[in-house]
Amino acid sequence: MAQTKRIGILTAGGDSPGLNAAIRGVGKTALSFYNMEIVGFRDGFRGIVEDRRLKLDKSTLAGILTVGGTILGTSRDKPQRMMIDGRIHDMTSVIVKNYGRYGLDALVCLGGGGTQKSALRLKESGINVVTLPKTIDNDVALTDSTIGFATALDIATETIDRLHSTAHSHHRIIVTEVMGHRAGWLALGAGIAGGADVILIPEIPYDIHKIADAIRRRSRAGTNFSIVAVAEGAMAKEDARAFQMAEARKERARNQREKHEAKLELAALEARHTGNTLRVAKQLEELTHLESRVTILGYVQRGGIPSPADRLLATRLGSACGDLIHDNVFGMMVASRGDRTEPVPLEKVAGKRKIVPPDHPWVEAARRVGTCLGD
Ligand code: F6P
After folding, report:
1. Helix (H) or strand (E) holding 132
2. Which 3 state secondary structure label does DSSP give 51?
3. What residues contact residue 350 under an 8 Å CB cut-off, 6+ apart?
4. Is residue 147 in contact with ligand 1, taking CB distance under 6 Å?
């Protein structure tokens, strides 16, 4: 059979379990099913700029289904803002030029929200892009789930399970920080699955006194330990208000100076937010007189073997991506919808974030079983 197309593939943004399964899904479909050629670019968009190519063949794709991380490497570099020789440059035109020079017919970008935006920019510059949604945060719009979320959920849940016995033995509050950026999917999911007594997410700003009341109620009922799952983006009501006001000021800015000032304010608020989980633990100790400890899960949530659910999702999305390229359908993100996949125009995804709606069934279920959400 004559070779049909030559495609490029890269992984961008933070890594997540299942990326290799997705590379394999795209690669095997392209190579074996459609007889295309596939070339990987190392370290995200920088790989196209700096010609970091890696030819993907059957042997490179073999044995990677279960491997964590990404065989291609990744970076948070954006086409329009790339540090080259110590200065920020817009490298979009270089990417377009190299895409032509390497004889590519399509470019597959695996990434989260930021990557969807970058991919749209490349589409608008004339590149045939197709994207796959991946991030442990599960916050990409218009897809049921993202590659990596299921594994991270397993890891975070297992950790909460383990914290129970030590919290119980020492009669302590254990405050555990879960990743998720500005979305609460991971903390909420792991908190519910792990039976956390309090779950704090960015979408529901909290009142520390309400949390202390809930913990004291547990103590009065004879249970003097508590597990508090805190999303890294969770905020006290007053902090959330300050953020909202600074964001609004940035939106309303009439000139560069006003915009710059609003950005500085946001950066200061963000800097203050670092360490919020420690603050929550300290405040709860003071208010309840129960000893408290902190466990920050961090990057362990992104590492290691992808779960079966992620391998399955990645393989489904990867093979559907091969189909789209074969059918010349470009400028799309391959979304997961129930058992099916669906191409969604990048214009509809870029710049949007899927956050937890306050009336989401997970939220309702958590409330029904008596979990305190801090409000
Ligand atoms: O987007 C995935 C994620 O792990 C977030 O949950 C977290 O806020 C962020 O990446 C951490 O980014 P970095 O890897 O750049 O430290």
Report:
1. strand 129-133
2. coil
3. 116, 117, 119, 120
4. no
- CB-ligand 1 contact for 112 (6 Å cutoff): yes
Round to whole Å and give the CA distance between 26 and 132.
Answer: 10
Q: pLDDT tens digit string along 80-90?
A: 999 999 999 99
Q: What is the pLDDT of residues 282-301, one digit of tens each?
A: 999 999 999 999 999 999 99
DSSP string across 111-123: ESHHHHHHHHHHH
CA-CA distances (angstroms) from residue 51 to 36, 85, 122, 252, 360? 20, 16, 17, 41, 45
**What is the C-alpha to C-alpha distance for residues 116 and 141, in angstroms, rounded to an integer?**
10
For ligand 1, what atom is nearest to the CA of residue 14? 14
How many other C-beta atoms are found inside a 10 Å radius of the C-beta of residue 223? 13
Are 333 and 116 in contact by the 8 Å Cβ rule? The answer is yes
**pTM of this structure:** 0.96
The CB of 172 under 6 Å from ligand 1? The reply is: no
Q: pLDDT of 25-67, one tens digit each?
A: 999 999 999 999 999 999 999 999 999 999 999 999 999 999 9
**Residue range 105-117: mean pLDDT, rounded:** 98
DSSP 163-212: HHHHHHHHT-EEEEEE--TT--HHHHHHHHHTT-SEEE-TTS-B-HHHHH
Per the annotation, the verdict on 359 as an active-site residue is no
Q: Note whether 181 and 302 are within 8 A (CB).
A: no
The one-letter amino acid code at 372 reads: C
User: Hey, which of 11, 117, 137, 138 would you mutate to test ligand 1's pocket, going by the most ligand atoms within 8 Å of its Cβ?
Assistant: 137
DSSP 306: P
Distance of CA 269 to the CA centre of its chain: 22
- Burial class of residue 359, CB neighbours in 10 A (0-12, 13-18, 19+): exposed
Ligand 1 touching residue 374 (CB < 6 A): no
* Cβ within 8 Å of residue 325, ≥6 positions away: 5, 7, 30, 34, 36, 105, 106, 108, 128, 130
* Ligand 1 atom closest to Cα of residue 112: 1
